[in-house]
Amino acid sequence: MERLSEHACFGGTQGFYRHDSEVIGLPMKFGVYLPPQAAKGPVPVLVYLAGLTCTEETFAIKAHAQEHAARHGLMLVTPDTSPRGTGVAGADAAWDFGDGAGFYLDATQAPWAQRWRMATYVTLELQSIVAREFPADTARTGLFGHSMGGHGALTLALRNPGLYRSVSAIAPIAAPSQCPWGHKAFSGYLGDDRAAWAAHDATELVKSGAKAPPLLVDQGLADKFLAEQLHPHLFEEACRAAGQPLTLRRHEGCDHGYYFIQTVVGDHMAHHAKQLSA
Ligand SMILES: N[C@@H](CCC(=O)N[C@@H](CSC=O)C(=O)NCC(=O)O)C(=O)O
């Protein structure tokens, strides 16, 4: 693992790192915020999955989460959103598919299947690197994310029971089988089999009986993607029918961007801190 930069921040350290990923087969970058408590011993880990077009730096720079992480003693881990520099033709042709748009799943279709393996990367490889290289109490790991990353947080938690002790999402793509972003990603990465899509769709997973820890989801009502792409009401209905605990909060005037994330990120950090210390 190579250290790219480190910056003192709220008594801790924000760092950015690169490593040769065996799962992806290429170098991958990620960020880690170490709170001041990490100087004394292992701390709980909170992984954040970012949205379309983002990198490992976006949340670290724009969300203003480090102050909350320092207060709660949480390590923040921010992976990139896809493989980079793959040489796959067309990977950079669109902002909602390919580069910066890994959708936190393992692709099954050529030419994506070899490199686009973000589910295994996040749940196994990154987890083990964090455990090896940082003072991490990985038995206490939480997961959250925004938009495409909110979809990733919900689906990876629902597909891997017990791996994440706390889960939340901000403006997630909550029913990707029923929106244009999801249709494009799932048909490209998974093919035309709707059963394969359902296995990566938070609403369909809850309908089929998958369970997660009690969920916090925040959604802005002035979000330009809400009506066409996000569909939190479908996820809400599925959770209610299945008995999956969910707190879904709707916020007047808030859009899809990082000003909204700044507004609610403190509540998300408190949610995770409480569940990770239970
Ligand atoms: N280029 C797009 C906008 C892309 C965008 O809004 N990305 C969101 C995530 S959307 C779902 O995953 C984001 O987090 N962007 C980073 C940021 O700094 O805001 C367009 O033209 O609409």
UniProtKB/TrEMBL annotation:
Its EC number is 3.1.2.12. Keywords: Hydrolase, Serine esterase. It catalyses: S-formylglutathione + H2O = formate + glutathione + H(+). GO terms for cellular component: cytosol. It holds the Pfam family Esterase. GO terms for biological process: formaldehyde catabolic process. Signal peptide: none annotated. GO terms for molecular function: carboxylic ester hydrolase activity; S-formylglutathione hydrolase activity. Serine hydrolase involved in the detoxification of formaldehyde. Belongs to the esterase D family. PANTHER family: S-FORMYLGLUTATHIONE HYDROLASE (PTHR10061). This is S-formylglutathione hydrolase. It comes from Piscinibacter gummiphilus. The lineage of its organism: Bacteria, Pseudomonadati, Pseudomonadota, Betaproteobacteria, Burkholderiales.
